[in-house]
Specification:
With 356 residues, this protein is of the alpha/beta class. It folds into 2 domains: 3-118 and 323-342, Rossmann fold (3-Layer(aba) Sandwich); 120-314, NAD(P)-binding Rossmann-like Domain (Rossmann fold). 30% of the residues lie in helices and 16% in strands. The chain is built from 11 helices and 14 strands. The protein has helices at residues 3-6, 33-42, 74-82, 103-108, 120-135, 138-146, 170-181, 226-232, 252-257, 275-283, 325-342, and strands at residues 20-23, 47-50, 64-69, 89-92, 111-113, 162-166, 185-189, 198-201, 208-211, 219-221, 235-238, 263-266, 289-292, 312-314. The strands form 3 sheets. A 7-stranded parallel beta sheet has the order 10-7-6-11-12-13-14, sandwiched between helices. Strands 2-1-3-4-5 form a 5-stranded parallel beta sheet, with no helix packed on it. A two-stranded antiparallel ribbon has the order 8-9. The longest helix is centred in the C-terminal third of the chain and has 18 residues, at 325-342. It starts with a helix and ends in a 14-residue tail after the last helix.
Amino acid sequence: MNDAQRVAGPGRGPHGVPAAIALSPILSARYRSRDLERIRSAAPGARLVMISSEGLADGPVEDVEVLLRGFLSADAFDRVLARTPRLAWIHSATAGVERMLTPASLQRSLVITNARGVFSQPIAEYVLMMILAVSRRLPQLLELQRERTWQPLEGAELGDVTVGVVGLGSIGQAVARLATAFGCRVIATRRRSEAGAAATSEDEPGAVERPAGDLGGARILGPEGLPELLAEADFVVLAAPLTAATENLIDAAALDAMKPGAWLINVARGRLVDERALLRALREGQIGGAILDTFRDEPLPPNSPFYALENAIVTPHTSWSSGRVLDRSVELFCANLRRYSAGEPLHNVVDPAAGY
């Protein structure tokens, strides 16, 4: 247990609950009445304060100890920080926390937790859907249908497909397990490559340690193994967090190292990819194609050249979406609220130095 895990709780409210909890909008949805009831049940006696995406509060925030951060700009976030001197813990409704690691938050040494595990299953299913669609040539078949042309096309069986997973957190692990279940060969890179390194499963709130061997025989490499992964994979899946070390990870050199005909799938962050280099590689046929669910600037403007590329599939940052993610998000937050009130270590504590 590290020091960041020890400082949470007890709160200043009744029986150790937080005196006040601030909630900003999460997952493109309003809080449902049952969500608010679950939060109140997890921290009975705590006052709930609603924070708009612009940082406006519907009540006093001076006694707020906990912030559930969803849609809040960096500027609005810093304004909220300046008005909440008792804030001790921030829970991110997303897995990525790069927008929370502002100088103001780092200076406060706040405990930060994230939504690791909440989105793993729908994102993994999205990735497998796209691998199947490309392998079985669904885009070309749909084009033939529009042209009313009867022309059988040869596809690839997944037993002949190699999937490269860049980043083996909860999302990368879910992709690896699902891909191996479909018969794919999987090669992955992670921060640590030693045999038996613990892998994290997020089927329940909090980190559950599982041996790396549970990943269906995936070959696991360290960061230095990226060129090997790029050279072998038919599909390169980006599932790494955005940090100083991963920004522009897929640049012109990385695209040049990819196997001819391979596809890039980005379900992580747009800034992992040099978009100019990717556009050039797609236009010149240097790689087979790209499936892009996330971009540097979102929403992607209508005049973006990515929309017009025949070898690109663009989706509006929707890989994470399912009917269950909001329930899982609230469940994880409530589990941590109970742990906070009891002074227990929180699930999914982020290491600010690592960025995840």
